[in-house]
Amino acid sequence: xxxxxxxxxxxxxxxxxxxxxxxxxxxxxxxxxxxxxxxxxxxxxxxxxxxxxxxxxxxxxxxxxxxxxxxxxxxxxxxxxxxxxxxxxxxxxxxxxxxxxxxxxxxxxxxxxxxxxxxxxxxxxxxxxxxxxxxxxxxxxxxxxxx
Length: 147
Fold this sequence. Notes:
3 helices, 5 strands, rod-shaped
């Protein structure tokens, strides 16, 4: 009977301590601004090894990692990435005194090499080059007639 009594006491004691073992931290604060779009603050409260990152505004577009600025860089040290080479097809037409590439009803590009462009006036071509988006100028590397 002594053995049975110890077993009952041990079970009773363990049942009394079980809720305390699985309860949350008594100092935890409830999430003040949890909405349907957030996961909740529990993940942040449990993760002491990560830096908290604010959620983006619902209307904001995410910034790709390669375009995010480094806070340690000054604005003058940030330089634009060089424009990638691309091929644009259209007609070379004379607009005023200059030749331009008309690539659609409303899309025209200034051309940096007017002598090369003049050889293809009123012809459909594909120009391979780099586009300077600030001046809308296509830096010509190659011009080929489109068949």
